[in-house]
Design goal:
The chain is of the alpha+beta class and 185 residues long. It is built from five helices and ten strands; from the N terminus they run E-E-H-E-E-E-H-E-E-H-E-H-E-E-H. The chain has a five-stranded antiparallel β-sheet. Strands 6-7-8-5-9 form a five-stranded antiparallel β-sheet.
Length: 185
């Protein structure tokens, strides 16, 4: 996930365009960067800390379980959340990232580090199906969990923002999301 900061305005044929600078950061860092004024807008995955932020929902998608290849759960049919949570604890409230009960979570700051920790067998996680579709690795197995919650994506920005560029970004993001929703042409 990333955040963006608007930059100087172009001239000429692209006078209406506003360039952006993408800040690469961990998913837990985004709300703080927005509140601190280090980013203007972010695409986030719920749950996240909304204090001081305005949020507009974008889309939802199924989640699948990321496991290290050879994990015992990978062989099970009809997996449920109770199976995933048996003997495990969540690393944070609302997150669907699990470690063995009593163990501290391994360090990770972004999705690449998270997937590496899963490959190493240090944790398992429910992740959006789009991550699974873009992350084919022989060390990972992706499994359906029948009662897994959907991943909810949103656009977030500071409540005190008066930026026309941010407003335009939010409007375009919601329009594009709506046009890609199931049942739209």
């Amino acid at each position: 996930m990333g955040c963006s900061r608007t930059c100087s305005r172009p001239t000429g044929a692209e006078a209406e365009a506003v360039p952006i600078e993408v800040l690469f950061c961990g998913w837990r860092e985004q709300p703080g960067l927005l509140r601190a004024g280090e980013a203007d807008v972010a695409i986030v995955v719920e749950p996240f800390d909304t204090e001081g932020l305005d949020v507009e929902p974008l889309t939802r998608e199924p989640q699948v379980l990321a496991l290290p290849t050879g994990h015992p759960l990978a062989e099970r049919q009809g997996l449920r959340l109770a199976d995933v949570e048996a003997g495990r604890q969540r690393v944070a409230p609302g997150a669907h990232v699990y470690v063995r009960r009593g163990e501290p979570p391994p360090p990770f700051g972004d999705i690449v580090q998270m997937l590496r920790q899963i490959e190493l067998g240090r944790m398992i996680a429910l992740l959006p199906v789009s991550v699974a579709e873009r992350t084919a690795r022989p060390q990972l197995t992706w499994c359906r969990v029948d009662d897994a919650p959907e991943a909810a994506f949103a656009v977030a920005w500071p409540q005190n923002s008066r930026s026309r560029a941010v407003a335009t970004f939010v409007r375009v993001a919601t329009t594009v999301s709506a046009s890609r929703a199931p049942g739209t042409a």
